[in-house]
Specification:
Blueprint (H helix, E strand, L loop, with lengths): L6 H13 L2 H8 L3 H15 L4 E4 L2 E4 L1 H26 L4 E7 L1 H8 L3 H7 L3 E6 L14 E6 L7 E4 L5 E6 L1 H4 L14 E5 L4 H9 L9 E5 L2 H9 L4 E5 H7 L4 E4 L9 E6 L7 H13 L6
Parallel strand pairs: 3-4, 3-5, 8-9, 8-10
Antiparallel strand pairs: 1-2, 5-12, 6-12, 7-10, 7-11
Helix pairs in contact: 1-2, 1-3, 1-4, 2-3
């Protein structure tokens, strides 16, 4: 039997690779940062080459580290699940799910109680970091993504279709100079999500305002913070009808009654072969029934 490096060193490497820092990984594994560093260094000595680029307060996988993580991370996860199953006395199925925070808080988490009742053996590891689709198979089993379209090489199921809403503070329509005409956009700041930049351009085109520029365009990577910024009167948010409805925030109103179909949808995405895995299949089937729009 070929000699293997210590399992503790492999576990340390995987955690640091996924979390990007010694500090975060040491907290996850309940180790001191120096002890964790020694385990990672032991693996690098065993392999005979560095696995990370050392940067200020962060570790970034190099090419060799990326290749090693791709090969061993699924095995470590399977081993962890097997041990958990044996020690708990029940089968544990684990799904590593990439998801946008706003979708998670508005549409997924309110229904997770039903998922737990139907499939108590299924557990979710939630990952809200960006670029989820590109990390499928490398730490993520499935992703709920917001996109115009999905690479046809992947399995994708559309979860909704939406309208673009212009969302602003209630004070904008109830104040002394109410915002009632689309042309007034020129005096306002537009709030746009980095993953949904075409919501603004599509709405402006449909409103016949191609030549009108807002006072400024502020970009966000958080839908929840966009809604809060709009509620605080910091600008008007170009988002989805479902974002507005699910927020149920009395401080917010829809501006300008213009019907504009969004070019973006939420999708369930995974690699085709992942659907043969029981955790992915269980979650996929439940999600389509519980969360997807019936008409899709």
């Amino acid at each position: 039997m070929r000699r293997l490096p210590p399992l503790t060193a492999i576990e340390a490497f995987v955690q640091v690779a996924r979390l990007g820092s010694i500090k975060a990984a040491s907290q996850e594994l309940a180790l001191s940062p120096p002890a964790l560093s020694r385990r990672v260094q032991a693996l690098e000595r065993f392999i005979g080459k560095p696995l990370f680029e050392r940067r200020h307060q962060a570790l970034v996988l190099n090419g060799d580290g990326e290749r090693l993580l791709t090969q061993i991370a699924p095995a470590i996860d399977s081993l962890s699940d097997a041990v958990e199953m044996m020690t708990s006395g029940t089968e544990v199925l684990r799904l590593r799910l990439g998801i946008l925070p706003l979708f998670a808080s508005q549409r997924l988490f309110p229904k997770l109680g039903d998922l737990r009742l139907k499939h108590p053996e299924l557990h979710l590891d939630i990952d809200t970091a960006g670029h989820g689709v590109s990390r499928l198979g490398d730490g993520l089993d499935a992703v709920i993504a917001l996109a115009r379209e999905i690479d046809p090489a992947l399995y994708a199921k559309r979860l909704d279709r939406n309208l673009v809403y212009v969302i602003g503070a209630r004070t904008l329509v109830e104040g002394p100079n109410p915002i009632t005409r689309p042309a007034q956009l020129a005096g306002l700041t537009a709030l746009v999500h980095r993953d949904m930049t075409d919501t603004f351009t599509e709405w402006r085109r449909a409103a016949g305002l191609r030549d009108i520029e807002p006072l400024a365009i502020d970009h966000f990577d958080s839908g929840a913070l966009m809604l809060e910024a709009a509620a605080q009167g910091l600008g008007i948010a170009f988002m989805h009808e479902s974002h507005f409805a699910d927020a149920n925030d009395s401080r917010l109103v829809r501006l300008f009654d213009i019907e504009v179909e969004s070019p973006y949808s939420y999708w369930f995405v995974c690699r085709p072969r992942a659907l043969t895995q029981k955790p992915v299949k269980l979650f996929h089937d439940w999600l389509i029934e519980a969360v997807a729009d019936p008409g899709i």
